[in-house]
Amino acid sequence: MKLKNLVFLAFATIGMSTLPAYSADEVSENAKENAGTTESWGYHLILDCKGCDIDKIKSAEAIKVFVKDLVLKIDMKAYGEPIIEYFATHNPTVGGYSLVQLIETSDITGHFVDMNGDAYIDIFSCKPYDINVAEKVVADHFNPKSIRKTYLERKA
Predict the structure, then answer these.
(1) How many domains is the chain built from?
(2) Of the candidates 126, 110, 129, which has an alpha carbon nearest to the alpha carbon of residue 118?
(3) Residue 121, C-beta contacts closer than 8 angstroms, at least 6 positions apart
(4) How far apart are CA 59 and CA 84, in angstroms?
């Protein structure tokens, strides 16, 4: 097992909320090395975005434009149209749009909280992608005050 995977495993095991950051080159190189092997099966980026532009996260159209741009810029292929539905109307502290975009190599999901502008976005794919490009697309579309990034290489 590679050192990076051991570090991820160690942090995940002890429940650390912030994992060490790796450059896009390191992530891409590791993904290329592991592509088609049993080392890693998939690549999972988790973005916790604080204080996004409220008008944009309250707009199904803005979310649709975002996910189409993200799919294009991380070189994925959408499988059908995105599903964007409003959920949690019973609880205004968590209510907002949820997003599911299937991609041929897995999925992109998200939930956007109306009350505070927070957004929780996940990108999972067995095809490698540039996590820094993904983060930039999120920042460009939603202008969050901060983004907490967690990256995992998945393997059963």
Answers:
(1) 1
(2) 110
(3) 46, 47, 49, 99, 108, 109, 110, 138
(4) 10
From first to last of its 156 residues, the chain has per-residue pLDDT tens of 343 433 333 333 333 334 444 444 555 455 445 444 557 889 999 999 999 999 999 999 999 999 999 999 999 999 999 999 999 888 888 999 999 999 999 999 999 999 999 999 999 999 999 999 999 999 999 999 999 999 999 998
Residue 65 token pair: 């434009």
CATH at 147: 3.60.90.10
Which structural domain, as residue segments, surrounds residue 136? 3-15+22-154
Both tokens assigned to 39: 């080392």
Residues 137-148 as b/e (b if ≥16 CB within 10 A, e otherwise) read bbeebbebeebe
pTM greater than 0.70 (yes/no): yes
Task: Decide if 11 contacts 5 (C-beta within 8 A).
Answer: no
